[in-house]
Amino acid sequence: MTKFINPGLIKTNRRNVLRGSMLAGAAALTGAGAAVAKAHAPRLDIANATSKNLYKAAAKQSADSTAKAADLSGYTRVKQELVAPPYAPVHEQIATGGPKIIEITMETTERLMVVDEDTGASVWALTYNGSVPGPLIICHEGDMVELTLRNPADSMMEHNIDFHASTGALGGGGLTHVFPGEEVVLRWKATKPGCFTYHCAPGGAMIPYHVTHGMNGAVMVLPRDGLKDKDGNQLTYDKIAYIGEQDYYLPMDEDGEYIQYETAGEDYSDSIDAMRTLTPTHCVFNGAVGAITGENAMKFNVGETVLMIHNQANRDSRPHLIGGHGNYVWETSFSEPPMTGLETWFVRGGTAMAAMYTFEQPGVYAYVNHNLIEAALLGATAHFLVEGEWDNALMEQVTAPHEFEA
Ligand SMILES: [Cu+2]
User: How close is the Cα of 152 to the center of ligand 1, in Å?
Assistant: First the structure.
């Protein structure tokens, strides 16, 4: 079947579309992408209307498909209430009962977000459910995820979703294009256990534009019998810390001040220029500088085990827990035995991964991208505040700092 993908609804032209297309061959140009709008005055209504008719045609084609209906017998339907990061939805670590169809709903909310209060940097974030990253989705291998994706009527742009955990149709991206005021329902089967990213992928240069405006998140597909070490022993966690690392490329004026925009999408051409540098102005955890530091620190107790899920949809990262370790680290699949005792681990750009640690000492732990420039200057730092009894056997300040005699 054919799906029409409009690679750009805002201030674009055919040359940009072709140069930016990551879906050559998969994307049929609609011509709407050639509707060049004036800078800062995108004629989205025209572009949207043109594409909409083509989408309707594609939907009809899809409806005429002769493919066999999926056998849903044996599945139980459940709803998963998604929650804002850094928290995880209520879930079972070890699946009880048979496979489930997990119903979730996400809205493609476009909202102005402050990225750094100190500099006034802000972004018209493109989000799933209003947060950067989008909410964490959790299921088990063999379950189906049934997503209702709703694009609010007051949105400026079309959106969709590509689930790296799914199989077919550009990860569902080809079947989920929704224009403002539309909703779509996609069901996909979780066949591979692990943590996976999901992100918006409307086509062409709009793909990195949406992804670097916050439109990404993670799915965790647990093995039905839960996590195991290399010898098959059960591993469980007490809490999840869901970290979405976001690289932003925010346009600046000649004076080096961050430009403020009136509406979502207005920064499109400036953003494309900034993105071309491949040099992010910010690398932050959960949308903004300080989103998980200071008063926003996550709280744990000594003896608690945390599963740190790290999502980076666009760029490599190297998380490190200062003062702790990755006791068990799954950089790729839950089918592989976890690596153990890591100091720093790796997030391939375009993935989510998991690391497990049990706290042994109280205090403040900094969870950072150990490119320390990105951690300290660009924002990639989170704080974990851990309470409990200090263990002198593990560490002790034998003598406090004092002047020594020369
Ligand atoms: Cu989008």
Answer: 12
Q: What number of other Cβ atoms are within 10 A of residue 102's Cβ?
A: 24
Tens-digit pLDDT profile for residues 348-370: 999 999 999 999 999 999 999 99
**d(C-alpha 109, C-alpha 127), whole Å:** 5
Domain map of the chain by residue range?
14-63, 76-225, 239-387
Q: Is 353 part of the annotated catalytic residue set?
A: no
Closest CA to 283 of 244, 250, 317, 248: 248
**Same-fold call for 76-225 versus 239-387:** yes
DSSP 239: E
91 is catalytic: no
Q: What is the DSSP string of 316-369?
A: -B-EEEET--EEEEESSBTTSPPEEEESB--B-TTEEEEEEEE--S-EEEEEEE
Q: CA 292, CA 382: separation in Å to the nearest integer?
A: 5
> Could you tell me which residues are beta bridge partners of residue 337?
none
pTM for this model (two decimals): 0.86
Give the CATH architecture of domain 76-225. Sandwich (2.60)
Q: What is the pLDDT of residues 12-66, one digit of tens each?
A: 333 333 223 333 333 333 333 333 333 333 434 444 444 555 455 555 556 667 8
Q: Does the active-site annotation cover 177?
A: no
CA pair distance 376, 389, nearest whole angstrom: 29
Question: Residue for token digits 């290399």?
Answer: 230
Catalytic: 164? yes
Question: How far away, in angstroms, is 325 Cα from ligand 1 center?
Answer: 35
- List Cα–Cα distances, 58 to 10, 135, 317, in angstroms: 22, 29, 38
CATH for the stretch 239-387: 2.60.40.420
Tokens, residue 300: 């744990």
Tell me the CA–centroid distance for residue 215 and ligand 1, in Å: 6
The catalytic residue among 22, 40, 229, 370 is 370
